[in-house]
Amino acid sequence: MMRRSAAIGVLFLTVLFCTAPRGANAQDARAFVGTLGEQAIQVLGPSVPTAQRQARFRVLFHDDFDIPGIGQFVLGRYWRAATPQEQRDFLGLFQEYLVRAYSARLGEYAGEPFRVTGSRPNGEDTIVTSEIIRPNGNRIAVDWYLIGSGGSHKITDVYVAGVSMKVTQRDEFASVIQRNGGRVEALIVQLRQKLAAG
Amino acid sequence: MRVRRLPLILSGLFAAALAVSGCAAPGPSGTAQAADAENDFNDPFEDANRGIFGFNQAVDAAVLVPVAKTYRTVLPPPIRQSLRDFLRNLNAPVIFANDVLQGQVELAANTLGRLAVNTTIGVGGMFDVATRIGIPYHSNDLGITLAVWGFAAGPYVVIPVLGPSNPRDLIGRVGDGFADPGNYVAGQHHLLWAVVARSGTSGIDERSRNIESLADIERTALDNYATIRSLYRQRREAQIRHEQSNLPNPTPVQGGDSGPDPSMTYSVAPTPPSREASPK
Question: Are A167 and B226 in contact (CB under 8 A)?
Answer without folding.
Answer: no
